[in-house]
Target: Sulfotransferase domain-containing protein
Amino acid sequence: MSSGFSSKVPDCVVQTCYEYEGVIIPVFMPLSALKRVRKFECRPNDLFIVTFPKSGTTWVEQLSLLIQHGGDMSRLEGTNIMEAVPFLESVEDGRNPLTSPLVIDKAEKMASPRILKSHCHSPFLPQDISTDDPKAKVIYVARNPKDTAVSYYHFCHYTPQLPSYDSWDIFFEEFLANRAPQGSWFENVLPWWRRRNHPNVLFLKYEDMKKDLPGAVQQIAEFMGKSLSDEVIEKSSGM
Model:
């Protein structure tokens, strides 16, 4: 058994991650941040984008920002998406996780309406949205786990802050055993699938977005309480 882990994990995981409540977490998402996320005070007009990694997160962030600004792309020129949509459980500088400030510090001070991102599974999320009656709006994006796993494996290889697995076979075994960073795909997705009919939850599928992006933009806009013209929806879908 690896030190600090409840079961044996590859050395690359030991070097880049830790285990908390049975979930493998990258060190750039420190325990101090996770504990703060649970206590994060939600506002009624917050919009959370929650996903398992490599499920279309950045895509939906960009669409949500564009919709928030009425489809006016000029208002997003020069915008750093990491600044505009804080990654709640992470640090500002993933290369120096032990000394870097926490992103949640900035998120707490942001003016409303806020768009916020998290990969946490439900028990780690803010208490106001981790139940079956979320008090703020949540867009959850799910992607076929087979495609998610392949994308995640490659992402780990070009992201120094994540484990660099020796082979796909090793990563796949860890993914199936719920020992990939962020834990179980199923435990991340299923609570939001059960909540999909709640008025504060919009459950999107990555594959549906690929098939009909204008339709997804319309869904997101309506969920955000925004009215966009057909022209703006088409333009936003081609970004």
